[in-house]
TrEMBL record:
SUPFAM superfamilies: YbaB-like. GO terms for cellular component: bacterial nucleoid; cytosol. Binds to DNA and alters its conformation. May be involved in regulation of gene expression, nucleoid organization and DNA protection. Keywords: Coiled coil, Cytoplasm, DNA-binding. Residues 18-45 form a coiled coil. This is Nucleoid-associated protein NWP17_16715. Pfam families: YbaB_DNA_bd. One of its GO terms (molecular function) is DNA binding.
Amino acid sequence: MTGKGQGFGFGLGKMKELADAFKKAQQVQEGAKLLQEELEQMEIEGESGGGLVKVIVSGNQEPKRVEIAPDALNQGAELLSDLVTAAMKDAYIKSTATMRAKMEELTSGLEIPGM
């Protein structure tokens, strides 16, 4: 047996790296809470038909409201349905991109040793 006090193979430098990584992870977790609140308050607008139909969702894709221009009602039920669906897809794509960008901002610079 070698009684050199090697421990688990972690030198002091590795322990500091690990402690720093935990600190960063904790900051990211706190940032994630704030980000969730921010995303809930956001309004992201998807539209179709040149603005005839607008769908507004939060940053975390919760539907908030739908706005339909009077001219859209004259298009008939089938076309109106297509316009609403297209506006929903547009809002979904925009909110997903926003969420991804915000998460990348939050986690940039996070490096965990050994990962």
